[in-house]
Specification:
The complex is a heterodimer of chains A (209) and B (265).
Chain A lengths: L13 E8 L2 E8 L4 E5 L6 H8 L6 E6 L2 E2 L5 H7 E4 L41 H13 L5 E5 L7 H18 L2 E5 L3 H7 L2 E6 L2 E4 L3
Parallel strand pairs in A: 3-8, 3-9, 6-7, 7-8
Antiparallel strand pairs in A: 1-2, 1-4, 4-5, 9-10
Chain B lengths: L5 H20 L5 H28 L2 H21 L8 H27 L7 H32 L1 H9 L4 H26 L7 H8 L4 H33 L18
Helix pairs in contact in B: 1-2, 3-4, 3-5, 4-5, 4-9, 5-7, 5-9, 6-7, 7-9, 8-9
The chains are: A alpha/beta (209), B mainly alpha (265).
């Protein structure tokens, strides 16, 4: 009998282990480098709270590992630059868009459907769809290794949503980043992700999109 | 110095009584609170006069210190009650009190030792009025600045957390709010210095002149006091804001607004 060749077992890029936050959980999940996984669940099931805990924005029990290094071993700001959370509603605290990019050229503006002039726009005049796409561009400027996307195309039309999906897919292929994508649409989940998680009161379960 | 008789004061009190009668006649509804406030003022000031008279007579360090501590604790309470959302637990009281202790006390003691240099340094005639002016002014500054910090942090919590998500440290994420709070804490003393002598004659200087001091001497004292108040307010506000903004976050740079109490109804 010939022993089957097994691929070398490597750590997933992101591993969430026994995570409990706001009396929810424990949650376990893992995402490999270059992989996109969808996360679905009814409203109020705690999807956003789970993402916040992974980004270490809320106190939690359990541990999150990035490439084998525990979250607690890395200073929190450094962790959040590598594990980027894109919230449903982005916030902008300066008057001009460019101030949030610290004057650095952003390679994702054109793929997301903006001209270079977008950097000079006033934040107060942005539509919610423009904010959502610019927030992705801003988050990518940190070159994160993990993207936690909370309904990133909720206020986008089909064309913009397709552009955003393409930008995330390209970034994932180019950098080997792991993506956890919260979506309300089964069609979108099937389109962007190769594995699918469902959030239930019992925890995270893998299944159909 | 011309001393005032009871008759002189009664004559002035008559004016307030006439005002109260006018309020009653015009149905303004102010007469009750006006009379109560007047009465409180007379009783409180008479009591403090008696206390100061006793302390001046004994001149002991123990009594002066005791008086200073009572003043400090009262000012600390005042800072706390002026907060819409205060830090829970001992922090709410200790923060303002501690900041005033290290600023007002330190500056007052420094002034007594080096600039005024009387013997002994704690002579109550100088120590207590000086400390009173310092506490009164740093108190307003610290109360305003803390209130601004906690209110703004509460209103802008989404922005603070967005900045944290992008990898900013807790210091960076609250920096602009803290600077804004610093400005509102310092505004009063900066305006008072700018307007001094033109718009307003400061109370202490006026008092000294009324008491017969040569105007230039009174002015020099007033300038000294303004310097001390500006420095004391600045240091006190800086310390209070530094501690409070630290307290709003935990060691993992998470915004923890649950350390603030609910606003008063």
């Amino acid at each position: 009998m010939v022993a089957l060749e097994r691929p070398p077992v490597s750590d997933p890029l992101l591993r969430v282990s026994r995570l409990i936050t706001h009396q929810r959980g424990p949650f376990d999940l893992s995402i490999d480098a270059g992989e996109c996984v969808s996360l679905r669940g009814p409203s109020g099931s705690g999807k956003s709270l789970l993402l916040r805990a992974i980004a270490d924005l809320d106190p939690h029990q359990g541990e999150v590992w990035l490439d084998g290094v525990a979250c607690a071993q890395i200073p929190a700001p450094q962790w959040r630059r590598q594990v980027a959370l894109l919230p449903v509603e982005s916030q902008w605290w300066q008057d001009e868009v460019s101030a949030h990019f610290y004057g650095v050229a952003c390679p994702w503006l054109i793929p997301l459907g903006f001209g270079e002039a977008a950097l000079g726009w006033q934040v107060s005049r942005l539509s919610s769809g423009e904010k959502q796409r610019l927030a992705l561009a801003r988050a990518l400027m940190n070159r994160p290794r993990v993207l936690l996307l909370d309904e990133p195309s909720a206020s986008l039309d089909e064309v913009s949503a397709a552009a955003l999906e393409a930008v995330v897919a390209d970034y994932r292929h180019d950098t080997g980043a792991a993506v956890l994508w919260v979506s309300h649409s089964a069609a979108q989940a099937a389109r962007v992700a190769t594995r699918h998680y469902q959030l239930t009161p019992q925890g995270v379960q893998e299944g159909e999109p | 110095m011309i001393t005032l008789s009871v008759f002189d004061l009664s004559l002035a009190a008559l004016l307030v009584l006439i005002l109260a009668a006018l309020s009653w006649h015009m149905r303004l509804g102010l007469e009750r609170s006006l009379l109560i406030a007047t009465l409180r003022m007379v009783v409180q000031l008479s009591l403090i006069g008696l206390v100061l008279k006793t302390i001046f007579a004994t001149s002991g360090l123990l009594w002066v210190s005791l008086m200073a501590v009572v003043m400090l604790l009262a000012a600390g309470r005042e800072v706390m009650t002026r907060q819409q959302r205060r830090l829970k637990g001992w922090w709410g009281y200790g923060l303002g009190t501690g900041a005033m202790f290290i600023s007002s006390f330190a500056v007052t003691v420094l002034a007594l030792f080096t600039m005024i240099g009387n013997q002994p340094w704690y002579e109550p005639q100088y120590a207590i009025p000086l400390l009173g002016m310092m506490l009164g002014n740093t108190m307003s500054g610290i109360a305003l600045a803390l209130d601004r910090l906690t209110q703004t942090a509460w209103q802008q919590r989404a922005i603070i957390e967005q900045r944290l998500m992008l990898g900013q440290t807790r210091t960076e994420a609250i920096d602009e709010i803290r600077r804004e709070a610093m400005r509102s804490g310092m505004m009063h003393i900066i305006n008072a210095m700018a307007a001094a002598g033109i718009v307003s004659l400061p109370g202490m200087m006026t008092g000294q002149i009324l008491a017969g001091a040569p105007p230039m001497e009174a002015v020099k004292y007033q300038i000294l006091i303004m310097f001390l108040i500006a420095a004391g307010t600045g240091f006190g506000v800086t310390a209070a804001l530094w501690l409070a903004s630290r307290r709003l976050f935990d060691e993992r740079h998470r915004l923890r607004l649950e350390v603030l109490s609910a606003p008063r109804p």
